[in-house]
Amino acid sequence: MTASRQVGQSLPDQVKVLIVGAGPAGMVAGITLAGYGIDVLLVEKRAQASALSRAMLISTRTMELMRRWGLEAAIRAKASDVEAYTYVTESLTAGTGSELPMAIPTRAEAAVISPTQPAWAPQDDMESVLLAHLRTMPTAAVRLGCELTGLRQDDNGVRATLLDLRTETTHLLEARYVIGADGPYSTVRKQLGIAMEGLDHLGDYESVQFRASLDAVAGDRKPAIYMITRPDAAGFLSRRGHGDRWVFARTRAPGQAGLADLEEAELAGLLARAAGIAALRPRIERFSTFALAALLAERYREGRGFLIGDAAHRMTPRGGTGMNTAIQDAFDLGWKLAWVLRGWAPADLLDSYQTERRPVGRHNVEFSSAPPTEPATAAETLPWDLNGRLAHRWLPAPDGGSAPADPVCTLDLVGDGLTLLAGPAGQPWTDAGAIATAPIPLTAHMLDEGTADALGLQPGGAMLVRPDCQEIRRWSHYDEADPPRVDHLSPAAHALALD
């Protein structure tokens, strides 16, 4: 594949994967791929990172991924100290109201099923953590102020036309694959010719981000969201990280003036009524308005082009699943692309991305737009977030030793290749060469009796796990006369090609 090129000295001519869009999904895809040593270029048409808080719920499974990359502490440092419930009240300072549970595990519930717990961190703060981490990775490059304007592909790769918005120069770049993480109006999706299906424009959702010292008057109660019922200030108030940043949001009624269209005094009065503080003088930072929709891409792939995040699905804010679904899309596609590019798996492994992730996207799109007859519970939504991953159990400290500073759990044992977990009598499994997985790297661990029992493993049995903590094979014992051999993952990804 050849191309004539113009200017753009800061851009490479070739990369393995081009990622378009530097939101959470694009950055997670980049982090995942670069973690395998794959060279990636992430381009974003915005000249600088967003300062709009937008999504704030980081789910249990998403926080497990942050923990995997050593980013949990940095994100928690930016998170609000709130609990997973909505407080329904006339105003922030009314003093009376009722609690509504959310479809999110509480801290106590999360402690049972995960080594971490959900976080309530503003999306822009999370993005700053992800971007800083991505920029430390040797095989990753990030270019802001760079827009995709054209895309073509053939059997060997893709050819992208990029526009440097600062210099107004174009650059032709060759890549093996392209990932569209460029939001609801995705250029990549349009270039690939993929349509969206579902419900468009269900209403207009708007918000205003402002600064005000409200913590002192809010009292000891710390709900994730205040549902304000006062008719002349109805909407939702929520803390955004530390300090005095708050957001007021609402679905705009037909004919109702938009928040951004209100005079300064009118907007200040509305926020004062929602807070219940007549003398409130909020410092307005920025507005956001977007059309509510429940849409799903008819397919997640076209040839060498893939869609993740809002480019693949649009959800309403209900349930807080949009950003988390996007991040988990990105991780799933990232490790599968890396395996193919490293030669660990055949290209047909990539077929499993749509097979496995689109049903999750469909469920979450439908959930977000369904009329809530009664509040959903964590028991209903958590299985879709964890998506059948390996059960979490803390491992005991080594015999004769004290507990390590950083406790280890079953999820921590899972590596970037295949991971074999054997029961306490599973020494044959953990011996070098006991199970051949070439060319896929394999790490093996023998578990204690309690942990093996919790995972349903027989003492001499074993289980094989993918990088996303999905179990793909289980044995009751090791057969020396017919040892298992894993040549590659099949397109179904949960099945193995065994020799």
Approximate helicity band: 25-40%
Largest sheet at a glance? 8 strands, mixed
Mean pLDDT: 90
Rg to the nearest angstrom? 24 Å
Number of strands: 24
Low-confidence stretches: 1-9, 495-499
SS element count, helices: 13
User: How does the overall form come out from the CA principal axes?
Assistant: globular
Structural class: alpha+beta
Distance between the termini: 36 Å
User: How much beta, percentage-wise?
Assistant: 25-35%
Notes on the structure:
By secondary structure, this protein is α+β, with helices and mostly antiparallel strands. Helices cover 25% and strands 28% of the residues. It is built from 13 helices and 24 strands. It has helices spanning 24-35, 60-68, 72-76, 107-113, 123-134, 187-192, 215-218, 264-275, 322-341, 351-369, 378-386, 427-430, 449-454, and strands spanning 14-20, 40-44, 57-58, 83-89, 98-101, 119-120, 140-144, 146-153, 158-164, 169-180, 196-211, 223-228, 235-239, 245-252, 283-297, 301-302, 305-307, 313-314, 418-422, 442-446, 462-465, 471-475, 486-489, 496-498. The strands form five sheets. Strands 1, 2, 7, 8, 9, 10, 16 and 17 form an eight-stranded mixed beta sheet that branches. A hairpin with a 6-residue loop joins β23 (486-489) and β24. α1 packs parallel to α5 and α1 (24-35) runs parallel beside α9 (322-341). The protein starts with 13 loop residues before the first strand and ends with a strand. The relative contact order is 0.14. The model is unreliable at 1-9 and 495-499 (pLDDT under 50).
